[in-house]
Amino acid sequence: DQQVKQNSPSLSVQEGRISILNCDYTNSMFDYFLWYKKYPAEGPTFLISISSIKDKNEDGRFTVFLNKSAKHLSLHIVPSQPGDSAVYFCAATWSGTYKYIFGTGTRLKVLA
Amino acid sequence: DADVTQTPRNRITKTGKRIMLECSQTKGHDRMYWYRQDPGLGLRLIYYSFDVKDINKGEISDGYSVSRQAQAKFSLSLESAIPNQTALYFCATSVPGSREQYFGPGTRLTVT
């Protein structure tokens, strides 16, 4: 039972364009969502997060949007840079627990 | 120097062998976690520990055990390794009140 789904295993984008990575979830209890970036041979590193009381959070080139009614969140990267090429995981958690449910990841390739 | 380190980084072992994966952190975080990543399945929680005396099972703890030797050290053991434990293993840390986790670089374990 995959509670957090990233349906696109890979995505290619031209440098300078927008990258949009998507994540869907099924559990209404989730109230906090995170995005992690992972380079080869390294562990995931935290990128950006959003609480369920918000619908948008922005940090530089990275913006996360949350649509609670659709149980959908997306990560926008503008403009995309070659150094953004990595695997991106979304994760979800809920109050009162420190368990995290991770998606399967999307491999982003930014083409120079 | 990395804040969260894992040893070994790569290990090949045979079915039935006992193996220990070690995690050390210099971040001073109380909370530590062990995850495994399998292709197409994202990261799944094996065990987590909120302090030296508090250890909890995650969603896939069968076949694994852990030891929290000190605040900074959290070890994962496979008492009798089997091939379906072949995976990438990550250790992570966090602090109370924060939802972010900090991951080590991972240990690639192959059981033949």
Description:
The complex is a heterodimer of chains A (112) and B (112). Chain A is mainly beta. Chain A has strands spanning 4-5, 10-14, 19-25, 32-38, 45-51, 56-59, 62-67, 72-77, 86-93, 101-102, 106-111. In chain B, 0% of the residues lie in helices and 57% in strands. Chain B has strands at residues 4-7, 10-13, 19-25, 31-38, 42-51, 54-57, 65-70, 73-78, 87-94, 102-103, 107-111. In chain B, the strands form 2 sheets. In chain B, strands 2, 4, 5, 6, 9, 10 and 11 form a 7-stranded mixed sheet that branches. The relative contact order of chain B is 0.34. Classes of the chains: A mainly beta (112), B mainly beta (112). At the A-B interface, strand 4, strand 5 and strand 9 of A face strand 5, strand 9 and strand 10 of B.
Offer a few descriptive terms.
heterodimer, A: mainly beta, 6-stranded mixed sheet, 5-stranded antiparallel sheet, 54% strand, B: 112 residues, mainly beta, 7-stranded mixed sheet, 4-stranded antiparallel sheet, 11 strands, 0% helix, 57% strand, globular
Give a brief description.
The complex is a heterodimer of chains A (112) and B (112). Chain A has no helices and eleven strands.
How much of the sequence lies in strands of chain B comes to: over 45%
Tell me about the largest β-sheet of chain B: 7 strands, mixed
- What is the overall silhouette of chain A? globular
Overall pLDDT confidence of chain A:
95
Radius of gyration of chain A: 13 Å
Task: Please report which band the strand proportion of chain A falls in: under 5%, 5-15%, 15-25%, 25-35%, 35-45% or over 45%.
Answer: over 45%
